[in-house]
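We close this part of the discussion by returning to an individual protein. In the encoding step, the backbone of a single protein was reduced to a row of integers, each denoting a local shape. The sequence in question and its structure tokens are set out directly beneath this paragraph.
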Amino acid sequence: MEFTTRKDIEAPQQYVFVAASDFAVFERQALRRNVDITRTEGPGPAREGTAWRIRFDYRGRSREIDARVASFEAPGGYVIKGSTAGLDIVLKLELMPLSKATTRMFMSLELLPTTMTARLLMQSLKLAKSAMSRKLDYRAATFASDIEDRYRAEV
């Protein structure tokens, strides 16, 4: 199952890439949402090979995801791959300059079941796909708006 969204951001591609690859900010946001996230590949700027172990509760059970930056190509985007019990996850972020001051952000989240239990979970998620797509669109729009606001404040 794949979820995709596209947003145009009124900021240069390099600026958007720096904001979208500031994983320390995402780590702090996760901690505020009661998600236990541990960087397993040491501190410093993100790069290919940076990895995390993520623990959270979902549907009354504790879940754990191991995630790793599989591809990191500044300022074009990155790919993060993760896995949990029976499910592989691929997050792709691509940035394309439309002009010097406008960047188009493509984001896709792909869930790939590897076990029968995960396939059953995917069937139940298909019923909620439109609601989940709306949430992804909303969060991407909020993220794009935050980047634009920060860029305008700096310029």
Q: What stands out?
A: The chain has one domain: 2-154. The helical segments are 13-20, 23-32, 116-127, 129-154. Residues 86 and 116 are 8 Å apart (CA to CA). The chain has a mean pLDDT of 94.
